[in-house]
Write a structure and sequence with these properties.
Layout (H helix, E strand, L loop, with lengths): L4 H10 L2 H6 L5 E3 L2 E4 L11 E4 L4 E4 L5 E2 L1 H9 L3 H12 L8 H30 L4 H9 L4 H7 L2 E3 L5 H6 L3 H6 L3 E3 L5 E3 L4 E7 L5 E8 L15 E3 L12 E2 L1 H11 L1 E5 L2 H9 L5 E4 L6 H7 L5 E4 L8 H13 L3 E4 L8 H7 L1 H9 L2 E2 H12 L5 H15 L5 H15 L3 H14 L20 H7 L22
The structure holds zinc ion (ZN).
Length: about 475
């Protein structure tokens, strides 16, 4: 075990399990126990019971059980060490680790973490009180973001000064730079990373700040030399922050994502806020990067239904083919929100929040969405127009790895474009053959042969534990490796 065993016992001893579970479950006292609706399976009559005296919970429905640490592991999707750290943080206990190296490592991480927490507070305070933030406050109000939203998302303002944050933090230059908060200029002076920008703090899924996104105010789109400035600037990668793995808003969205079995993925911080304001608090955003496999790996245990709320048609062919592969690999269903063309969720939410709800309920499977686009812009009135649509549709359909799915969509195209299914089938086979480099091998019917079962699928089909609850190896627990 990486954390000193006495510390683990102390954490369990000082955790109020009723208060902890009460954050997620409405509990009622019945005799010596407290009962409520189980947070781990859907039910209408309570079968989840907490024994506060003994410090454990048990569900008669799904047999989930354990102590405070297992509850945190299960509900927050954390590994053992992170769960103990989470509870220690709540109880104000400083943990000691088994080896000196790990202790040093952990204390380094915790000083980076502490600097980030202080930075969140500093920026938020600037937005609320600084005279220099007047324009920022005006800008946010003009975007319908009121104080309630500032608080919920911890919005802030980075002053237009070279080292205001550094001056406030009182941390070493090393911590300042390593936390991604600033850099050393050529004269060896610390400089703030973000200046004169509205700040969107980025939290990890357990709610700890790891990075910042900064948005420039609309009038200031050029620097003093007339060079255009980027609209958004983000923290660099740090030991605490990897943008490939981080989803903005996941800490706040997690509960609703699990409850509704659905997650909405946007491209912008203000898109996420718009969904929350429209009463759909299960949206997250990538942080200035395309959707990656690491992102999906992270959310696959929260929800299998993913709704893309950005223009997925512009993602490029190599990206769209990946989506189908990921659907298969992680058993996901990828949908595309029904957004009006050319408007992002942030803008739409300002003008017509109810339309955002329609975009979610009207989401279409990824392939259906792309074919619909073709029908919408194509010419269905002439033979030539219909033939062009067929060509484009076949190029899209043959990206899908499942023959049954391909066939079904092909029938829809044949129907819509009024061509014989047998002709279309022939063309699809030709297309598949000419792109066989994409599939590893095709069988006699031009279908890709079933890929070898992956280790993960194998474990699932044997009814083994969910990957996140299997025993975690020491290497995986290596502190440097955690998100
Ligand atoms: Zn249960």
């Amino acid at each position: 075990m990486l954390i000193n065993e006495n510390d683990v016992a102390k954490v369990l001893d000082q955790t109020d399990i009723l208060a902890l579970i009460g954050e997620h479950v409405g509990l009622k006292r019945v005799g010596l126990r407290h009962v409520g609706l189980c947070p781990f399976h859907s039910e209408n009559t309570p079968s989840f019971s907490v024994n506060a005296q003994e410090g454990f919970y048990y569900c008669f429905g799904c047999h989930a059980s354990g102590d405070a640490i297992s509850f945190v592991r299960q509900i927050e999707r954390l590994d053992f060490v992170s769960a103990v750290e989470y509870l220690a943080g709540k109880a104000g206990i400083t943990l000691t680790y088994e080896s000196e190296e790990l202790s040093k490592h952990a204390s380094k991480r915790s000083s980076l973490q502490a600097a980030l927490v202080k930075a969140v507070e500093f920026y938020a305070d600037q937005l609320l009180h600084s005279p220099g933030a007047a324009l920022a406050r005006e800008y946010l109000s003009s975007r319908n973001l009121d104080k309630e939203d500032w608080e919920r998302f911890h919005l802030g303002w980075a002053p237009d000064s070279p080292a205001a944050l550094y001056g406030h933090l009182n941390v070493s230059e090393e911590v300042f730079v390593e936390a991604g908060l600033g850099y050393m200029d050529k004269n060896g002076k610390p400089q703030d990373q973000l200046r004169a920008r509205v700040i969107f703090p980025i939290f990890d899924s357990s709610g700890k700040p790891v990075a910042f996104g900064g948005r420039i105010l609309p009038p200031a789109l050029e620097d003093s030399h007339g060079q255009p400035l980027p609209k958004y600037k983000n923290s660099p990668e740090t030991p605490l922050y990897s943008k490939r793995k981080t989803l903005y808003g996941l800490n706040l969205a997690k509960a609703d994502v699990v409850a509704k079995g659905e997650i909405i993925i946007c491209e912008g911080y203000t898109d996420v806020i718009a969904f929350f304001k429209a009463g759909i608090p299960r949206a997250v955003a990538t942080c200035g990067t395309a959707l990656t496999e690491d992102h999906l790996n992270k959310i696959k245990s929260f929800s299998k239904r993913i709704i893309l709320a950005f223009d997925a048609d512009n993602a490029g062919i190599s990206a769209t083919e990946k989506f189908y592969q990921w659907e298969k690999k992680y058993k996901l269903e990828i949908y595309v929100a029904d957004l009006p063309k050319g408007i992002d969720p942030g803008e739409l939410g300002q003008k017509d929040p109810d339309r955002l709800k329609i975009a979610v309920t009207g989401a279409k499977p990824f392939m259906a969405f792309r074919l619909q686009r073709l029908f919408d812009v194509g010419d269905l009135t002439s033979i030539e127009g219909r033939a062009r649509i067929v060509d484009d549709a076949i190029a899209i359909i043959c990206e899908h790895p499942n023959g049954l799915v391909r066939n079904d969509y092909l029938m829809q195209v044949a129907d819509k474009c009024r061509f014989e299914m047998s002709d279309l089938h022939l063309r699809l086979e030709q297309a598949l053959r000419s792109k066989s480099y994409f599939f590893e091998e095709l069988d006699a019917h031009g279908n890709p042969k079933a890929p070898a079962q992956t280790h993960e699928e194998h474990a699932d089909s044997n009814g083994a534990l969910e990957p996140e609850f299997r025993p975690i190896s020491a290497q995986e627990l290596g502190l440097s490796d955690r998100p």
